[in-house]
Structure formats: structure tokens, C-alpha cells
Amino acid sequence: MSEDSLRYDKMVEDALRGVVRDALTQTAEHGLFGEHHFYITFRTRFPGVRLPGHIMVRHPDEMTIVLQHQFWGLEVDENHFEVTLSFSGVSERLYVPFAAITGFADPSAKFGLQFQVEDEEEEFEDEDLPEEIPDGDLGDDTPADTSDEGGKVIALDAFRKK
């Protein structure tokens, strides 16, 4: 595409990222309503993403987080969100630019979005990863569900591009 043409595809994606931003802003201000919960998939190597090293080792390219029962300190601004989640019983702070998001879903509303992420990824070499990870350090990265309800498994295939 020539540089002098309008990038409608980028404009639409930016507008749809605004939907994610608005949903997270409302959640930060008022909490989750009813059965709403979010699956957010993002590129872990995208510039500006901040994750603890042991999480980066486990998810070197992309990861999905769930905002449902156990998340704290959700903060949202124009370009990113921050949230604290529990990984193997340890609270960890994540910083995610909206431009790093590749997918957003709210299964309770049967709503999902897929995004193309520009190839702005910084070079990330294997030597940037910790050399050794003590046994048991990686654990299960899924936030624990402390509700009295039974767990639900939701396939995200319905929200993925085919």
C-alpha cells in the first residue's frame, strides 16, 4: 500500500482497541458486572510489555490472561493497562500496551475481537532469558478461581480467525 493512502485498516483496529480500553476502564472503575469476564491475548515481546522473567520464559511469544475473580489494581490509560494477577500463588504486576493485544473476548457476552499486531517487536535473544529456572518456579500461570462456582472451560476457537 502506498504511503499516501489512508490506512482504513489501521483506523478500524485503533477504534476497536478503544472498545477494549473502554471495557477495561469501566471494569477498573466499577468492577465486573454479572457474568462478564475477559480473556486478553497479547504479544509478550512487544515493545513496552513488562512481565516478570519467569512468565516471559513460559510465554516467550504470546500469552492469554483472564480477568475474572482474582485480579487487583487494574489501571487503564490511553495507551496501556496494568493489572496484578496471581501466578502460582504469587502476585505479579503486568504492564500491557494496547498495541500488543492480539485478542480480546468476553465469553459471557459472546463477544470477541482479533487484532493484527504491527511487526514492531524488538529483537529478543535467548540470552535475555534466565539460564536456569529452579524446579517449581514456573507453576500454573492461570489465576486461581476462588468462587464457589464450578470451573468452566471455554474454547476460544470461536473467536479466532480461521
From TrEMBL:
Residues 120-148 have a biased composition (Acidic residues). It comes from the Bacteria. SUPFAM superfamilies: SspB-like. Residues 120-151 are annotated as: Disordered. InterPro entries: SspB, SspB-like_sf. It holds the Pfam family SspB. This is Stringent starvation protein B. It comes from Magnetospirillum aberrantis SpK.
